[in-house]
Amino acid sequence: MPSPFVDKLRQELSLAQLDKLAPIKLAVFDVDGVLTDGKLNFLADGSEVKNFNTLDGLGIKLLAQGDIKTAIITGRCSPQVERRAAALGIDYLYQGREDKLTALQELWQDTGFSAQQTAYIGDDLPDLAAIRAVNFGATVNGGHQFVAAHADWCTQRTAGNGAGREFCETILAGQGKLEALYREYL
User: In sequence order, which residues have a C-beta less than 8 Å from that of residue 137 and are 6 or more positions away?
Assistant: First the structure.
């Protein structure tokens, strides 16, 4: 019996969005403002604290189960991001890359993936060129409005509160893979 949740996800996507999701083989994430709430928290010793959501983590693992590679491109360098990426099995990590489009092009060159096979989610102006360069460019609810105006899709959830998971599940639902992945948990 099909899941009403998965059916609802697919019904909310336009035919154009479904067409854009079909060839996706690589999902790329910004970190601050997507996988975190975007706030920068520093301890008295100057070390940085990042809060990640476990919902997003399982979404990224579902992508891997659905044969979709994952990458992070972030403007900041952080050992927390490195540890989180390793724990989740993120395939490619590019830190300290404020020019997201150049990093994305390097990722394609390094891996053989193409723009047509790529989905990207970001929240602010440094992400805009990458969002526009990929086949399925997404942003988060509460991200910059100029970015949202140029994205193919926007999450309902906010950054750090499951927006990354929603992005993952939308890709998988659009490809007809999510139902089978959910069934593994029954």
Answer: 119, 120, 121, 130, 131, 150, 151, 152, 153
Report pLDDT digits (tens) over 24-45: 999 999 999 999 999 988 989 9
Contact 163, 56 (CB under 8 A): yes
Owning domain of residue 74: 4-183
What is the SS3 assignment for 82?
Answer: helix
Distances (CA, A) of 183 to 6, 97, 110, 162, 176: 11, 38, 34, 21, 13
Going by C-alpha positions, the residue among 32, 67, 75 that lies closest to residue 51 is 32
pTM score, whole prediction: 0.95
CATH number at residue 141: 3.40.50.1000
Instruction: Please state the φ and ψ torsions of residue 75, each to the nearest 5 degrees.
Output: -75, -20
Residues in the chain: 186
Within 13 Å and on the Cβ side, how many CA atoms surround 128?
Answer: 11
The tally of domains found in the chain comes to: 1
Of 150, 149, 142, 140, residue with least CA distance to 56 = 140
